[in-house]
Write a structure and sequence with these properties.
With 288 residues, the chain is of the alpha/beta class. It is 68% helix and 9% strand. Helix 3 (103-144) runs antiparallel to helix 4.
Amino acid sequence: MTDTEIIYISQQNEENKMLSHLIKYGFSPRWVNYNNTENLNFPHPCVVIIDIDSNKISTALENLSGYKGFDEAIKLILVDNPDIPTLDWQVKNYDFIIRPVDSINLSLLIEKTVLVDRYRNMMGLLAKESESRIGILEHLINLKGSAESDFSTERDLFLKVLDLEKKLLQEQLSLNESIRNIALFRKNEYISMKDRIKAEELLADLRRKELIDARSTISAQENLIDFSSKELHEAKKIIDARESVEELGRLEAIQLHEEIKALKKNIVELEKEIAKLKKENEELKRKK
């Protein structure tokens, strides 16, 4: 039995992210541009991934149905919603996958689809070959009891049986290999998930430490603001006291100035009185 081919049909170029993810996960998809499907064929077995606009799905399925092998191929159709208009013809072997599509889940789905397809084909081969095998055994039994039996005929029949056993063994090995690949893929995904969880835990711990540091910083800032507020309050009290002293000093200065002015006025009056007395004294002296 040949390997299952994966065909990725899209309207985008080969740089499609989903296509890149499938290659990253170990697949070898054949990219086909939906706008250029000339000479397209679908070998058996085949898984077809259709990634185009949802409103073009019906037309695309109808167009692709004319290509050899498309009806038998397994079709995974990426759509925005599963409400695709009913067609006049039947589409076989298909399943809708609702966008957005996770690349890991799509890879697992493809792997499982390939595995189931291989198993189904192997069972078909087994059923087909079993019919001929039963006929061969019946013929061997008949030959054993008859005189017509000869060594070369029996040898050819046994070689056919051995060839059938060899084919069945090869199919079983191929099936086991597919199962092993799925197990390895899941193991790697499990390891990746553990790494992501560990990274998220480290990130959460870092954020927790940042939150603690932020709280400490906020507390320190609040203490600084409180201290600054107290200093500001004390400074205001000092300024108010100084203003009160200055106001008191200004009033005292005005009062002192008034007193000095009054004293100067008294001095002037006293000087006039003294001068007057001196004059009277001089006149008294002359009269004597």
